[in-house]
Write a structure and sequence with these properties.
The chain folds into three domains: 66 residues; 107 residues, Tyrosine recombinase, N-terminal domain (DNA polymerase, domain 1, Orthogonal Bundle); 198 residues, Intergrase catalytic core (hpI Integrase, Chain A), CATH 1.10.443. About 3% of the residues have low confidence. It is mostly helical. It contains 13 helices and eight strands. α7 packs antiparallel against α9, α11 runs antiparallel to α12 and α12 crosses α13. It has a three-stranded antiparallel β-sheet, with helices on one face. A three-stranded antiparallel β-sheet has the order 4-5-8. A two-stranded antiparallel ribbon has the order 6-7.
């Protein structure tokens, strides 16, 4: 017999109907559920009769095998709906990552199950299976990293959370107390010390002008790679040294580079460049005009053809630059971390550094809209002194 649970919500009374659909090969009970939405104003005995009749129809459809309710769809079908639902709510890069997780990990193992049939035990076995090297769906070797396993589980939880929000399921089978997730070690933040940063700047003096501008800007402002590559000349005030950060460039595998909004609303900020970097940028702008007179380049950092510079080419050039001069091998993002550590060691507060970098995960960023201009100018002067020392008074 169907089980009925009434709920009072903002939109009136609803009824959760649950029906047993038998047992699977391992003796687990299979339960299908749906939500009944009675007409507004229906109360008392009339409400009870309406719901019970709906429950009888639903039970007949389940037992006859003709139930086509939303909860009876497979996880594969619901994941397709989930991805469509998240469009516009997540950035393109995050959407791409979710699609890879769903297509590469979740669907091959759980996609054949009906949404209403997935149990906590299935989720636990799925998470445990990710520890096997065969769980990889890329060209890598060995087991998946603990952080990757956590990400896969997080996406699966998000899928079932939507199913619960839509009243397709009464509860999610992704229960943290039922799974064994691997421990994640705190990541080591990579950054350059003052001496290493000075050596890096000295090595840049022998490099092409564009590369000197890009790396110096990354170190002195803490801008992300995508933010640097999205810069346009009209974002920079050459007289005041102010640069407005409002967008970011990204690139998905097999696609052209595209422009999007900054990572978070707090990443929109105004920074101030040291005068030496402004001089370098002006020199690069003049060279750019001579090399690409037909394009009328609006983008600051252009590639060999005068078009936007590719994120992949930046990463490759950075790796070759470090190897050429025997510098410690660190990701380009280490320059951003270096900006933070250098400013903190110079006595700047967390709020100042948070505003400089456009961080969203520091609670001290609440005052950044008011203090940003002043702290950025002071940060610029502090970094400028290091610039002068490393270059012997000039560039």
């Amino acid at each position: 017999m169907a089980s009925i649970t009434y709920r009072n919500g903002k939109k009136g009374v609803t009824a959760r109907i649950r029906v047993s659909a038998g047992y699977d090969a391992e003796g687990r009970q299979l339960v299908c559920s749906t939500t009944c939405h009675p007409p507004a104003g229906l109360t008392g005995e009339a409400l009870r009769r309406f719901v019970e009749e709906a429950a009888e129809r639903y039970e007949r459809s389940v037992l006859s095998g003709t139930n086509a309710g939303p909860a009876a769809q497979t996880l594969t079908e619901f994941c397709r709906f989930y991805l469509d639902n998240r469009q516009g709510h997540l950035s393109a890069t995050t959407m791409h990552a979710y699609e890879q997780v769903i297509e590469g990990h979740i669907l091959p193992r759980l996609g054949h199950l009906r949404l209403c049939d997935v149990q906590p035990r299935d989720v636990r076995l799925f998470v445990d299976s990710l520890a096997d090297p065969s769980a990889r769906c890329d060209d890598g070797e060995g087991r998946l990293k603990p952080r990757t396993v956590h990400k896969i589980y997080s996406v699966l939880r998000s899928v079932f959370a939507l199913a619960v929000d839509l009243d397709l399921l009464e509860s999610s089978p992704c229960r943290p107390d039922k799974v064994r997730l691997p421990h994640i070690d705190e990541p080591q933040v990579q950054f350059y010390s003052v001496r290493e940063a000075e050596k890096l700047l000295c090595c840049l003096a022998s490099e092409p002008l564009k590369w000197r501008c890009l790396v110096t800007a990354a170190l002195f402002t803490g801008m992300r790679r995508g933010e640097l590559l999205a810069l346009r000349w009209d974002d920079i005030d050459m007289k005041t040294g102010a640069v407005r950060v409002t967008k970011s460039q990204y690139k998905l595998a097999g696609q052209e580079s595209r422009i999007k909004a900054t990572k978070t609303p707090k990443s929109v900020r105004t920074l101030y460049l040291p005068s030496q970097l402004i001089d370098l940028l002006q020199q690069w702008r003049d060279e750019q005009s001579r090399r690409f007179p037909a394009q009328g380049c609006a983008v600051v950092f252009t590639g060999r053809d005068g078009g936007p510079m590719s994120p992949d080419s930046v990463t490759t050039t950075w790796r070759m630059f470090l190897k050429k001069y025997g510098l410690p091998h660190r990701k380009l993002h280490a320059l951003r971390h270096s900006t933070a550590t250098l400013l903190l060691s110079a006595g700047f507060s967390l709020a100042d550094v948070s505003a400089q970098l456009g961080h969203s995960n520091l609670k001290t960023t609440a005052i950044y809209t008011h203090a940003l201009s002043d702290c950025s100018k002071r940060a610029s002067r502090a970094m400028e002194k290091m610039f002068l020392r490393s270059a012997g008074g000039g560039v």
